[in-house]
Amino acid sequence: MASSYSIGKHFEDLIDNLVESGRYATASEVMREGLRLIEEREERRKAKLEALRAEIQKGVDSGPMEEVDLHDWMNDIRARGRQRLAARKRGE
Which residue has the higher pLDDT, 90 or 29? Predict the structure, then answer.
């Protein structure tokens, strides 16, 4: 089942150069290699996406988020930062 695709001059030249260099015997080999690389990349992407979805589901399944007063939380962060800065200035 032969197919015809327009890939543009840039890629046509790339394929010609790869074949002329001896790296590949035919343009078809170049195209198959390129498609294999795309397939591998898509499989990695799919695996990463599945892992991310699993982690999101773990978070959802863990129950509702603990309610936090953002004002108190930010004040606590600032206070700890000031303590670290003061300790650094004291040479601790």
Answer: 29
As a whole number of angstroms, the distance between CA 44 and CA 86 comes to 47
DSSP symbols for 26-42: SHHHHHHHHHHHHHHHH
Report CA-CA distances (Å) from 82 to 28, 56, 85, 86. Answer: 65, 34, 5, 6
Q: Which two tokens stand for residue 89?
A: 């200035």
Dist CA 37 CA 24 (whole Å): 15
* Site of tokens 């790296």: 23
Residue with tokens 């690389």: 37
- Tokens at residue 24, please? 């590949």
pTM exceeds 0.70, yes or no: no
| Average pLDDT rounded to a whole number, residues 9-35 | 97
Q: What percent of the chain has pLDDT over 90?
A: 84
